[in-house]
Amino acid sequence: MDEFLQKRNQKQNLRKKEIFIKGIMVLKAAAVIGEEFGTAALKKILPLREETNGSLAQILKELEQNDLIETLDETDPKNILCRFNKSLLRESVYQVMLFKDQKQYLHSQLAEYLQSLPTSVLDPHQSELELLKLRDHVMIGEDIQDFKDLPLK
Q: Which helix (H) or strand (E) holds 111?
């Protein structure tokens, strides 16, 4: 009986560690997306692309229980919308936990995702703002210092 309980505890501890590590990865990717983020974008830029919507939702619930994020909208299970509980937390994750190469990779992945969205997804009133965000993600992803050096597509 003791051996069974010990193995069960080991499995639970491994699962907790796995969720913790994946939670850190989610926070890093979310920090690149911005103050508010959705699982649709997360799934496209995360190195954990094999995560299902359900497993990603479970990781988000764990982050929410630890008071790191809050869920804004769960009506679409394919795109759960969340935000960081504190803007300082997002900024800290972005500045401290992400290395330059990680930032570049995540920004370039996000830029590709944003470019793949149909234009009808963008609110016409927000389109200029969205284009500026896209430009910023491309510049960081490509390590470009001046927007004049951006390759035109």
A: helix 100-116
Give pTM, 2 decimals: 0.74
Token pair 């479970």 is at which residue?
58
Write the CA distances from 126 to 57, 83, 100, integer angstroms.
28, 19, 29
Which of these, 42, 68, 142, lies nearest to 101 by C-alpha position?
A: 142
Instruction: Assess whether pLDDT exceeds 60 at residue 139.
Output: no
In whole angstroms, give the CA distance from residue 39 to residue 81: 7
Q: How far apart are CA 76 and CA 88, in angstroms?
A: 28
Q: Are strands 36-38 and 69-73 parallel, antiparallel or unpaired?
A: unpaired
For residue 80, give the nearest of 105, 99, 103, 61 by alpha carbon. 61
2-21 pLDDT tens trace: 776 666 666 666 777 888 88
